[in-house]
Amino acid sequence: MTSQVSSTAEQADGALVGEQRSPGSGDPGKEVRRLDRVIIRFAGDSGDGMQLTGDRFTSETASFGNDLSTLPNFPAEIRAPAGTLPGVSSFQLHFADHDILTPGDAPNVLVAMNPAALKANIGDVPRGAEIIVNTDEFTKRPMAKVGYATSPLEDGSLEAYNVHPVPLTTLTIEALKEFGLSRKEAERSKNMFALGLLSWMYHRPTEGTEKFLRAKFAKKPDIAEANVTAFRAGWNFGETTEDFAVSYEVAPATAAFPTGTYRNISGNLALSYGLIAASQQADLPLYLGSYPITPASDILHELSKHKNFGVRTFQAEDEIAGIGAALGAAFGGSLAVTTTSGPGVALKSETIGLAVSLELPLLIVDIQRGGPSTGLPTKTEQADLLQAMYGRNGEAPVPIVAPKTPADCFDAALDAARIALTYRTPVLLLSDGYLANGSEPWRIPEVDELPDLRVQFAAGPNHELADGTEVFWPYKRDPQTLARPWAVPGTPGLEHRIGGIEKQDGTGNISYDPANHDFMVRTRQAKVDGIEVPDAEVDDPVDESGRGADTLVVGWGSTYGPITAAVRRVRGAGERIAQVHLRHLNPFPRNLGEVLGRYDKVIVPEMNLGQLATLLRARYLVDARSHTQVSGMPFKAEQLAEVFKEAIND
C-alpha cells in the first residue's frame, strides 16, 4: 500500500501518549480519544496467526499515513508446542502522528490469545496498560502448562492493568455458524476477529484487509468470506459492547516525511528491491545463488518473482554451491549475489577468499542472527562483524556495508553494488533479523534519483609488450581504483587464467615469487583502503556559546533506531550528547579518527560483546566504552538513555 505525505518535522521518540478528548462518532455513547502514538503487541501460539494479524494492522496503518516501526518475534520451530512459553509468537507495532524510530520499549496494548502469551509478555507491559485476553483459553490445562495455579483473570494479579476479558474463540465460532465450518476451522479465524476489534479501537481502514483476505483465499471463497465475516464481527463487537467505551485516533504523520509516495516495507523486501534496482542501473543481469536459511530466505523468495527484470535465482543444494554458482555468474558478467546468515558465511568463507583473489564483483548478504553455530535462528544479533572483517584465511580484505533501518536496506544494497562493481571486489552487506523482519514507511524513489552503476567490460588488448605486441593483461589496474579489467568469457583475445593460486602482477600467470606475493597482498589491501565512502556525519547540536558535547555515541547497523531515540531523550532532559552512525565498516570513513578524537568519552552500543569497539580501539587508540546486549532482542531506548546519562555524568 502507498500513501502521499508532505512537509518535514522531527519529534522525540520518547514522547508520552497524549489524551485530548473529542466527541465520539457512530454510537453516541462511545468516546473517542486522540493519541500521538500507540504501541500494540499481538501475542499467541505460533499457529494463531499473530504475524499475519500484525502485518495486516501494519499495512492499514501505513496506508492511513502514520509513521510506524514493527518488531515481529516468533519461535524458530515451524510449529512450536501449542500452549507453551517457547511456542509464543508476537508482533509489536509502534505507530504515531510524528517521526518515530523504534518499535517501542513497552506495549500500551497487549492482545493475549492464551495463558502462555499472557505470561510470556506481561513483564513488558507497564501498569495501566490495556490487556485484551481471550478468556476461552484460560481453562485448567492451558494454565497448568505455563505454571498458573490459579487464573490470573480472577486472582487479582492483573489489578494494575485495564483488562478486557473477551471470549474470542466463542464469538468467532458464533459469527461463522452460517458457513458450516467445523469448530477447528472456525477457530482459525479468531485472529481476524481480534484484528477487527483492534481496527475499530484505533480507527484503522478496513477495505485493504478485506481485499487481502479475498485475494489470499481466492481458491477457497468460503474460507475467504469466513475470515472477512470474522473480521467484521470483531469490528462490530467493539462498536456495540459496553466493555470498550473508548476508541482512539492517531492522526497521520503528515509532518514526518518529505513529500513523496510511500509504502510500508520490510528490510528483506527493501534489500531485494535494492538489488533489482542496482542490476537495472548497472545494465547487468542479476543472479542470486543461495541456500535457504533464516532470516535470509525471504530475499530468495522475493527475487524469484522478478524474472521480468532479468533476475535469475538458483536454490543450491548447500551454502558452498550457492556462492560457487554466484561467483561463476560474476565471472560471466552478471551482478552476482549470495544471501545467507552467519552459519552460511562460515561455509562460504573459502569462496569469498577466492573472490578476493579473482577480484570479481560479488555481493555476500549476511542477515545476522543469534549464534554461535545455529544459535537462535529467529532472534537478532550483530555479532558477525569480526567474522566479516577477518573470517578468511590469509590476508583477504573485504569491504563491509551495514544498513541502519529496514528502508535503508534499499540504499545499502545500491551502495554495496557500487563498491563491488567499481572496485572489482566481493562486498559483505551486514543486515540482521531485526531489520529483515521489521518494517517502516519507505519513500519510493524516482528512477533519476538512483546512481548510474554501468561498467565497461574489457573489449580488447590493454598492454603493449616490449616488442610491440598488443596483449590482454587481466591484472593491469585502473590507476584510480586499482580495479582490474572485467573480461567476459568468450570475448576473442581476452582468454586468461583464473584460480585461487597467487597471480603474477599484470599477467595473471601463476606466481610463487615472494616479492610478487607481497606486492599483490598489499595491492589488494590498498584497493579496499582506497574505496571512496562518505565522511562520517556527526549529529552534535552546539549551544549559544558554540560549545558541543563531550560524549559521543558511535553505532552501526540496526542499533540506529534505539540509539537515536535515546539520544533524543537525553537531549530532552537538558544534557549534551553527540552521535555518529556508521554505514561503512571497511574501510571506515576517512574522517572517523578525527571525529573520535574530538570527544572525551566514546560509547559504542552493540548487540554483541564489543566488536566495533574492539576495532575502534585498535585502529584509533581511543578509549571506546562498550555497552553490549546479546539477548536476541533489540535495545530499548530508555535503557540506552540511562546508560548515556551515566556516562555523561561519570
Would you give an account of this structure?
The chain has 650 residues and is of the alpha/beta class. The protein has 20 helices and 26 strands. Strands 13-12-14-15-17-16-24 form a 7-stranded mixed beta sheet, sandwiched between helices. The protein has a 6-stranded mixed beta sheet with strand order 5-6-4-7-8-9, sandwiched between helices. Helix 14 links the parallel strand 16 (400-401) and strand 17 (426-432). The longest helix has 20 residues, at 221-240. The chain is globular and about 95 Å long. The chain starts with a strand and ends with a helix. Mean pLDDT is 94; it is low at 4-26.
Question: How would you describe this structure in keywords?
Answer:
single chain; 650 residues; alpha/beta; six-stranded mixed beta sheet; 20 helices; 26 strands
Concise description?
The protein is an alpha/beta fold and 650 residues long.
* Strand portion: 15-25%
Number of helices: 20
Identify the strand order in the major beta sheet. Answer: 13-12-14-15-17-16-24
* Overall mean pLDDT: 94
